[in-house]
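Question (not urgent): is this output format expected?
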Amino acid sequence: MINFKRCTEVSDSKIYEAFNKGYADYIIKIRLTEEQFIKRFLGIECERKNSFVALDDEKPIGLILGDIQNYNNLKTMRCCGLAVIPEYRGTEVAHKLFDLHKSEAEISNCDQLFLEVIDKNIRAIKFYEKKGYKKVYDLNYYISSDLNSWKKNSSQFEIKEIEFDILKEKREELSDLHINWQNEFFIIEKLDNIKSYGVYDNNELIAALNIQGNGFINFIWVNKRYRNRGIATSLLQKAVKEMNLKNILTWSTNNMMYQGFLEKRDFNIKISQYEMTRVL
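Got this back:
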């Protein structure tokens, strides 16, 4: 008998089993240990209380992971992942999981549903469109592994490490700027091994960077009055040197200036996705 439970009602190992088997044939190979999965998905990206698992008796067969945040000034339920193991696809399992997800958002008075989907995952895109989602942003994942040009500081301004709270204040000033979910500050502040750098001109913060130890750019910003002076490049150069980075990685959503910056510096797109929303 198939039943559905909130993820607070089952063990983490059952949640991991549903995730691992449901994504076993995914377009992108996801190889996470149970410990890594719990830390990333149940500790940073999702909430157990907003997530549901499908079981056939006690066998995990499907999963929908969710999280609720104030995103783009709207109370938003994000689908962090929806997976059904192969032998149960084409049944009502995915539809029932989605119904629980949507109902949870409505009970919580959310304004919208939100998710990301790989652009080549046509089956998933069609499923979400039938559920009322619409594509709103393109989301590209960039990587640069040739860091020879990131070794020397090219800016005359002072760059120093700063506290994360200083960076949070700057994000609040940019409240109308669209940033993809994974790079929002409610995610960043949960991460380990991050550094923030600021660029100053006469004690005024004019640019900032937050970056992970693996080289993933969480946030980069330059005041409009100081753009096109090599300041963003200088921030990355300092991080590469001080953190001994091997790669630089980042997401970008429909931002022509940022995409141009990346392409001029030989970043390559590795993954393309769509951000999709449904108004509630």
